[in-house]
Prior knowledge:
- By secondary structure, this protein is an alpha+beta fold.
- The protein has 2 domains: 5-197 and 309-401, 3-Layer(aba) Sandwich (Aminopeptidase); 199-307, 2-Layer Sandwich (Alpha-Beta Plaits).
- Helix content is 33%, strand content 26%.
- It has helices spanning 5-28, 36-50, 94-99, 122-138, 140-144, 162-170, 224-236, 276-287, 314-329, 345-348, 386-401; strands at residues 56-60, 70-75, 78-87, 105-107, 112-114, 146-153, 177-180, 186-187, 190-197, 199-208, 212-213, 245-254, 260-261, 264-273, 291-292, 298-307, 334-339, 354-355, 362-363, 380-382.
- The strands form 5 sheets. The chain has a 6-stranded mixed β-sheet, with helices on both faces. The chain has a 5-stranded antiparallel β-sheet with strand order 12-14-10-16-15, with helices on one face. Strands 4-5-20-19 form a 4-stranded antiparallel β-sheet, with no helix packed on it.
- Strand 15 and strand 16 (298-307) form a beta hairpin.
- Mean pLDDT is 96; it is low at 407-412.
Amino acid sequence: MNPDPALFQAAAEGHLSAALELLRELVAVNSFTTNADGVDEVARITAAAFAPLGFHADYVPCAYPGAGPHLFLSRPGEGDPIVLVTHSDTVFPPDEEEKNDFRWEARPAEGRIYGPGTIDNKGGTALIWLALMTLRDVAPEAYARPSWLVAVNAAEEVTGDDFGLVTTHRCHGKARAVLVYEGGPIDAQGYHLVVSRKGRSTWRLEAEGRAAHAGSKHHEGINAIDALVGVLPGIAALTDVAEDRTVNLGWIEGGTVVNRVPHEAAAEWECRATDPASLERADAYFASLSGPTANGATLIASRAGHTSPWPGGDGTMALFAKWETAANAMGLKAVAVPRGGLSDANHLWRLGPTLDGLGPSGGNAHCSERSEDGSKLPEYLEVASMVPKAVMNALALAAIGSAPSRGQPAGDF
Length: 413
Ligand SMILES: [Zn+2]
């Protein structure tokens, strides 16, 4: 198949105003992660938009306390599903939106639409819709052939593997491709697509000493702060540029008043790495800190959270090549970039070849403030990124969808 990009361009342009209308409806509903009613309404608006495309909606309870339902939109077809991933929740509580008068605001002169979730990640949802509408119009066979699953996380903004587990179950552990529609920046180099993400471990270290009068009984005390700070340089030293690993000591507390030998102290940090083995080596070091110290205190190290890295690899780069070919056919350039932040890709990449950053371009995600002098601007979508990104996706999906899926080796699509 050798599709004509101009046909895709015309189709995407034809559906753009409807895609922006869908986005406006989604942005109008507050869907802070624990606003379950709002998340539910966003899921229902999304399901209604995809129904004419032949998608059946299932709502699945989310394990995170107070969250709304995950949404799974499925369209049956051949082989393992092509999974298109987005999320319905945002980081903005209703009173923050109110306080900052943060709502849908199109500023055509700037080429931007401001509003909660415009880029993170309701714009991604609208982009999936626009890409699939375009594909259906221009390449109906490539659209009809594969099995599709649009997976909408209700609680992406809080860490947890609940959505990953539910999605894995629905796919029976296998996907033809996992495509994540988080925003993708555009700069002089081209369209950034994300090909790996760091994983993250979070840790807490507690030091237990013995309190004593700092004047008369200093020798009977065991200083917990001394014990704790003695090991912090070793923790920080695990930042390793060559290994692409970072450690960030982010919180520390200890003692009460200076005329007491402090009996308690604690610190917390996070560690990120792209290579799973590198993160495991750091975790093993942190765990080994538990035990007695030279001054007689006891250290207790505990891992508070863990999200595995998405290391990328051959399957991801084969997928990236499809998007690169699509970009080139449009006279554009796609660039493969690693990222330090987490996304659903960290939880889903084991299902199949994974690519991220497929959504539109925008900025200031997680920001709601606007200052008079313009030094603070809230989250926005760059409207001009919608059509090219939808066309790029539809062209790549046409290439995947027009090929048979059965009887191929793993990692091929
Ligand atoms: Zn976010």
